[in-house]
Request: fold
Amino acid sequence: MLFYRAALDLSPRTRTFVADLIRGHRRRIGSRWRVLPPGRQALLVHLRRNETFSALAAAFGVGLATAHRYVTEVIGLLAELAPDLR
Reply:
């Protein structure tokens, strides 16, 4: 369970959208196992805007490198949807 000190403004629709992107990506690359399921990874990425990677890693029970990799992965997936924003 994740305890957080403030209300989150991530809508269920947005979280589902990002989680579906992650799910599809994992299927395409043949990823068999990850520490966090897609929905939790989407939440981790959303929280990155206000938190350090160290704080995120601790809150989600993952390593620092894993937190960074998860955020970078989702940024890449979102950037693929709008190539001219890169």
User: Anything to note?
Assistant: The two ends are 35 Å apart (CA to CA). The chain has one domain: 12-29+36-85. Residues 12-29+36-85 form one domain.
